[in-house]
Design a protein that fits this description.
The protein is an alpha+beta fold. The chain contains 3 helices and 9 strands, in the order βαββαβββββαβ. Helix 1 packs across helix 2. The longest helix has 15 residues, at 42-56. Residues 1-27 are annotated as: Disordered.
Length: 192
């Protein structure tokens, strides 16, 4: 397991307790948050999403992802009920290093940052952003972010620090291969 222990909540990815069902959102909220995962089987991506939901949905409904198959070994994940920026960052990291799964998928997330988002300082507010992990990672408890203007940041889970990276980010910003609005018309599997 490569995932940072400081991110685990309660009993980890095996705890299936959930908040009262009456508090679960039922009204979809328009947003542009999505994650594209490649080089992974359907069963493995389902298990990773379930593990994440087991960790983060114990006390409240922090993440209600929807899994959509794009092609063999490639999936889109959206958040029809929205998700906090901080939780989206944890989700991208967890999919790259899921507990109890020995896989190495390609994971990239996209969103538009908002004022008040955890880690986001004035220079990165209201910008389209791409979230990912570096090719070589020895820390496991952060994500990298590149904004639409190709400014790179390291978002460390150990602090509320947003650290601007040197002049060239590890990856330039690219738009997602599929628009989140197009995904809403494709049948997917919801997780809670």
């Amino acid at each position: 397991m490569k995932f940072a222990p400081s991110l685990f909540k309660n009993d980890g990815a095996k705890n299936t307790s959930r908040p009262l069902s009456g508090s679960k959102p039922n009204q979809e909220i328009t947003n542009d948050k999505q994650v594209i995962v490649g080089k992974i089987s359907y069963e493995d991506v389902k298990n990773a999403i379930t593990g994440f939901c087991n960790m983060y949905n114990q006390k409240d409904w922090a993440a209600l992802p929807r899994l959509i198959k794009l092609a063999e070994g490639q999936f889109a994940i959206t958040f029809p009920y929205d998700v906090e920026f901080r939780i989206l960052c944890f989700f991208v990291n967890y999919l790259a290093y899921p507990e109890d799964l020995n896989i190495n998928p390609e994971v990239t997330g996209w969103t538009t940052t908002s004022p008040g988002d955890y880690w986001i300082k004035s220079g990165a507010v209201s910008k389209k952003a791409m979230l990912f992990l570096p090719k070589i990672d020895t820390e496991y408890d952060f994500v990298l972010m590149t904004t639409e203007d190709n400014i790179g940041y390291k978002l460390s889970f150990a602090s509320r620090a947003q650290k601007q990276l040197p002049a060239l980010p590890e990856r330039n910003y690219t738009t997602p291969k599929v628009n989140v609005n197009e995904l809403s018309s494709i049948e997917g599997e919801d997780f809670s």
